[in-house]
Here is the input.
Amino acid sequence: MGPEEPESVTAGHPALGRERVVLHVDMDCFYVSVERLLNPALNGLPVAVGGRSGRSVISSASYEARPFGVRSAMPVGEALRLCPQLVIVEGSMAHYSEYSERLEKIFERFAPVVQMASQDEAYLDLTGTERLYGTPLVAAEKLRHAVLAETNLPCSIGIARNKMVAKVASDLCKPKGLLWVLPGSEALLLAPLAIERLPGIGKKTAQRLHELGVRRLGELAGFDPELLRAHFGSHGPEMRERARGHAEGEVERGTIAKSIGAEQTLGEDSVDATRLDGILSALAERVASRLRGEGLRAGQVTLKYRYDDFETHTAGRTLAHGTDDDLQLLRIARELLAEKWNRSRRIRLLGLSAHQLDSGDEQMDLLAAPEESGAQKLHAAIDRIRIRHGFGGIHRGSSEGRLS
Ligand code: DCP
Ligand code: CA
Ligand code: CA
Here is the structure.
């Protein structure tokens, strides 16, 4: 190539050049797609991954099941009512983690900075990589091709100048889609969408916006910012900026932890329910505090219990919504122990771990419900005290002693 080569391959488009370029890649119906690799007979059928128990929820639904209204986080019973021919497959977590690791390695070949945002999705910062990887569209096509050739899994890709818009874009073009939002056209893309599509607007916020007559992002983008401030405080104008396609947040190198857990061996093997409950409470606090410290939410919780003869069991539950809350973790741990523990047998060890961790951008509601914000304030205060005094510094009333 000679010196007459253009400065950048993207120079042909006036909107490009010094702009930041963020790519968001998200696997299509990830768990279902992995199950289909393990059992190709599932191809083309309405399939959902979910547990067998009445209380379990759907974690992933195939695109054939979605026209019936089947969605993630829906109870299995309800999904079967909506779509009686739905094939329910029990999940195989180990396989999902293995594929997630393979995907991460592929993503890392396409950008110097890759942020795995959950098991099945990542942000890639493509800024300044044109010479190496081609224009964003070419890089995206190559990425999708590599993913398909090396894992046989389908994905969708959004490209934009910030993470938020890239994520909305990948979501809009699913499945097997590719959408590039040119710099300057963000507001145009967002305007016709329902406000719920914007990461950061959860149910509570959406409901209050509906009360103000705001249903589409375009309406939010054009709403009087002072009126929004009057209703939502500083979140109001912030939401309005996001509805216009403006968002902060760099692509941060790194992978989220696969799981966060804590366990404790009892000083003396026990059948004392109160004592065991105290330990669960301390474990839940410890796990929740670490989740909050990492800015993560758990989508699945596992209880481990070991009897005095070292026989060890685990029991897990998938949650409808990710959580970092002590009391919710404790509630689940209690239920699992109550269901599984053979009370005539002494317990030697209890463990609690959080899995399917997610950075939570999606579910985060900028305006948490008022009753939640009290709990969040309390958590933040507790976490601050712990940072200053070490973990033993504070415990809820019922927690037993200090964990090592
Ligand atoms: N997951 C879960 N419980 C939830 C949501 C998700 O266990 N409530 C798991 C199963 C999903 C995986 O995480 O396959 C990725 O979640 P996504 O939200 O990306 O959903 P899918 O990949 O299943 O579908 P989509 O094609 O809409 O991305
Ligand atoms: Ca996905
Ligand atoms: Ca995802």
